[in-house]
Write a structure and sequence with these properties.
By secondary structure, the chain is mainly alpha-helical. The protein is 71% helix and 5% strand. The chain has a domain of 208 residues: MetI-like fold, CATH 1.10.3720. It is built from 14 helices and three strands. The radius of gyration is 24 Å and the shape is globular. Its main location: membrane. It is a multi-pass membrane protein. Belongs to the binding-protein-dependent transport system permease family.
Length: 333
């Protein structure tokens, strides 16, 4: 297991490196630069700014500068306190020496660094992703179990109809509907903003409903397959109560495929909050990401994609490890 984890971590580092290359290349393939505005800057000032951020260099050289400043050892006691506090992640590698992640300055927000933007806004997106996952699991698993245990009945058809509805209606459609009904007409919930549990209800439902449909369909299919296995028929032949058969034997094995998708699904929910945050006015990282694309703020784009990529590979690794513990038949070597 340890060898498997180490091997996966090395592969993940390679994946992250390839992601930085692709993202950096795509950003610079788009026409225009970060300082091309409707009101052009004087040529001298623009040249000085581009030289400051190495934008006057070839793309390959710019990428080298970015990777050089991304993860470098620093001697902490000699650095200003403000710079030490700006570190996003630090690893101690020696007496007074730390390995810091430095995502660089923001071109559009001159007074803020990318580290500062991510540190302040990523927790909001992460919290929204957690709430959406709770909604998806809380609705999807019971709905799938109910449909499987009542196959080809009204409950089965009703549950799967709800699942199809959840998959068919995107956030960009469901979000305004929820705001119009519960925020504007009924005034039960605040339509925009963040900070209280009431603010999180509608965004979590809008973001998690489609995922709950996926979990419901997967739970139903997996449970229907498990309850037809020989060991389930043996347990019934021995006179074991149906409730115990479902809870102790069928349900645990049927949830293994569900657990497998929870990691990527959670990462997808956190990284897919862009539209939701825009609709509900949530101060998360997604809004900054969309704005940075419009403004061609390369460091914010790179930093956001890199952080989300790290989150995704970690989620996949955790799911693989959890999968091995849930299913004794699986052993990683």
């Amino acid at each position: 297991m340890i060898r498997y984890i180490v091997r996966r971590m090395l592969w993940n580092l390679l994946v992250l490196w390839v992601i930085t290359i692709i993202t950096f290349g795509l950003m610079h393939a788009v026409p225009g630069g970060p300082f091309d505005r409707e009101k052009p800057l004087p040529p001298e000032i623009k040249a000085n700014i581009e030289a400051k951020y190495h934008l006057d260099k070839p793309v390959v050289v710019q990428y080298f500068y970015y990777m050089r400043d991304l993860l470098v050892p620093r001697y902490s006691p000699t650095l200003p306190t403000s710079l030490q506090e700006d570190a996003l992640i630090r690893w101690k590698i020696g007496p007074g020496y730390f390995l810091w992640i430095n995502l660089g300055p923001s071109y559009s927000s001159r007074s803020r660094s990318v580290n500062d933007i991510i540190r302040q806004n990523l927790p909001v997106s992460f919290e929204l992703g957690v709430y959406a996952l709770l909604v998806a699991v809380g609705i999807g698993i019971p709905l799938g179990i109910l449909a499987a245990l009542n196959q080809n009945t009204f409950l089965d058809y009703f549950g799967m109809s709800l699942a199809i509805f959840g998959v068919s209606v995107p956030v960009i459609v469901l979000g305004p509907i929820l705001v119009s009904i519960f925020g504007v007409w009924l005034k039960w919930l605040p339509p925009t903003g963040w900070g209280t549990p009431q603010h999180a209800i509608m965004p979590s439902i809008a973001l998690g409903l489609a995922s709950s449909a996926l979990i419901a369909r997967l739970t139903r299919a997996s449970l229907l397959q498990v309850i037809r296995e020989d060991y389930i028929r043996t347990a019934r032949a021995k006179g074991l109560a149906e409730r115990l058969i479902i809870i102790r034997h069928a349900l645990r094995n049927s949830l293994i495929p569900v657990v497998t998708v929870l990691g990527p699904l959670f990462a997808a929910l956190v990284t897919g909050t862009f539209v939701t945050e825009t609709i509900f006015g949530i101060p998360g990282l997604g809004r900054y990401f969309v704005t940075s694309i419009t403004n061609r703020d390369h460091p914010v784009i790179m930093g956001t994609i890199l952080i989300y990529a790290i989150f995704l590979v970690i989620a996949n690794l955790v799911v693989d490890i959890t999968y091995a513990f849930l299913d004794p038949r699986i052993r990683y070597t």
